[in-house]
Amino acid sequence: MLRKISAIACTWLAAAVAAESAWAGDHTTAGPGLADAQAAAAPTDDDIRASSSSPDRPPSLSPAAASSPSLSTAVEKRSSKRIERKRKSRRRRARLGRAGAADASWAGFALRVPVTLRALAGVFRGHGLLREDGSHTLLAASLEPTAKRDRLEVSGQLDVRHRETAGARLRETRSAASVGAKLDIAKRTKLYGGAAIDWTRRPGWPDPYQPDGAGGVFATSRRSHWDRSFELGLLAMPKHQRLRVEWRYTLADYDEDPMFDAVQAPTHLVPADHEEHRGRLIWAYRTKRWSLGPEVTARSRHYFFRFAGDAGTGKTHAGPGGPPPNPLYQLVEIEPALAGEIELDDDRAEIGASYGVPIAVDRFEGYRSNRGHHPALTLRWGRAPWSARAAFELEWRTYGPNSYAAGDGHPPLLSGDRRVDRKYVGRLTASRSLGSGFAAVLELGALRRCSNLPPYQPGVYPASREYDVDWTYTNWSAGLGLEWTR
Q1: CA 399 to CA 59: how far, in whole Å?
Q2: In 46-71, which positions are buried (b, 16+ CB within 10 angstroms) versus exposed (e)?
Q3: Partners of residue 195 on adjacent β-strands
Q4: Between the CA of residue 139 and those of 125, 225, 314, what are the distances in Å?
Q5: Looking at the predicted structure, is the pLDDT value of residue 242 above 80?
Q6: Rounded CA gap, 216 and 93, in Å?
Q7: Strand 130-143 relative to strand 146-149: parallel, antiparallel, unpaired?
Q8: Does residue 69 carry a pLDDT above 70?
Q9: Three-state secondary structure call for residue 368
């Protein structure tokens, strides 16, 4: 009995000494040997993740392990790293100008509704072939709700833009609405699809193909259109890889000019109605800092009113009398490309580049068949409260031997024996956060087109028309305004 009592007393005494030592260790500095031993015994983040995820190594649930100072330290380190990563992500989104969102929930769905309002004013010169200069004001609103629940994410977008011009007849209103869904069908695999409607209204724009006989041109609304599109895709994300396969169908319906006569003059003021099938295959190898991979884009566009042209001359034979008309115009294009991007300066900057080789085939006699080069460069930079994005693009196309033939009223090309078309495009957007969701915005854009096609001259070429069109031109625009996001 005395032995049992003495054993119990010794056990209580040892426990008390151990508790006293633990309390003292929390309030005193350990010596070098003890600190090294604790550091060596403390599990790393990889050990903790392995013990919690591997079925062969179940995590320890003993009270000693739960109260181990070394384990607590490791968990705190891991938590602090998570917090730091979240802070970096928030700072990066702010630097790059990405909108925030208001969070809510409904019927088990997590809702986010980003809203963007924008107002800009500026000046511009030219719009494509149109020689219109002046000032413009732009009002725009965008709503992008998303709802997510378990493996399903539903998103939508509503955009409204209106532009007024002074000194030019280029008023434009554009409305677009879309809805889409994304479903996790397997681990790291998503199936997505959607539908969209885009309505563009351009009333009273000048038409260079309707001269008024007094040195000016009549107005038209035939550039107004509304488009319907459907999309279906698959996204797979194996480790360090991204594979995307998608298909998109678009149906474009243009306004018909009152002067268009489909029977007596089917080649004059032709509506641009068409349908397009587009497919894309993208693969990329990704790391934390960079990605690189090939992609292929293929499209087939079929026009409903435009006829295909003869080789060299472009004649369609459409109209009353004479030989039967050519078939309707159809263009098939494929563009293989190599694309990549890299992040620099602790995620404050991104550089993206791509190089494509577009090959287009006019399926009738090759009048519009061409191939070319399509390099592009994108730069993104952000350091609070500033952010900027710049994009540069070149599209250089050389047409086939059947694209142009001098004679029979056609003057020779300005240079060379093949039709060549080059487009240089540059865009810059910069913003500075003003707080409370507001930001000052600067937008600059420029386009330069160079072509060796001879220009249309009134009464000269074409001899029977009074057209005044130059295929080489320069457009630019600049705008400054205010943006609010929530």
Answers
A1: 68
A2: eebeeeeeeeeeeeeeeeeeeebeeb
A3: 179, 230
A4: 19, 20, 41
A5: yes
A6: 49
A7: unpaired
A8: no
A9: coil
pLDDT tens string 308-360: 999 999 999 998 888 899 999 999 999 999 999 999 977 789 999 999 999 99
Question: Is the distance from CB of 124 to CB of 136 less than 8 angstroms?
Answer: yes
pLDDT of residue 85: 54
User: What amino acid occupies position 477?
Assistant: S
In order of their start, the domains of the chain are 103-485 (2.40.160)
Lookup result for tokens 């003495």: 6
Residue 322 is predicted with a pLDDT of 81
Place of tokens 């705008």: 479
Enter the tokens of residue 218: 């009549």
Place of tokens 């566009």: 301
Query: Under 8 Å CB-to-CB from 378, ≥6 apart: which residues?
Result: 341, 350, 351, 352, 353, 389, 390, 391, 392
Report the mean per-residue pLDDT for the chain.
Answer: 83
Furthest C-alpha separation in the chain = 129
Which residues have C-beta within 8 Å of that of residue 256, sequence separation ≥ 6? 222, 271
Residue type present at position 322: G
Residue 361, Cβ density class (10 Å: 0-12 exposed, 13-18 middle, ≥19 buried): middle
27-41, 207-221, 371-385: range with lowest mean pLDDT:
27-41
Predicted confidence band of residue 103 (pLDDT cuts 50, 70, 90): low
Amino acid at 434: L
pLDDT number for residue 22: 36
- For CA atoms 266, 268, 273, 278, the dihedral sign is positive
pLDDT of residue 319: 86
Residue 235 vs residues 207, 288, 317: alpha-carbon distances, Å: 44, 19, 46
Strand, coil or helix: 407:
strand
d(CA 351, CA 389): 10
Choose between 164 and 110: higher pLDDT: 164
**Which residue has 């109260």 as its token pair?**
67
User: 313 exposed, middle or buried (CB, 10 Å; 0-12, 13-18, 19+)?
Assistant: middle
Residue 90 confidence (pLDDT): 53
Cβ neighbors of 235 (< 8 A, separation 6 or more) are 189, 190, 191, 192, 242, 243, 244
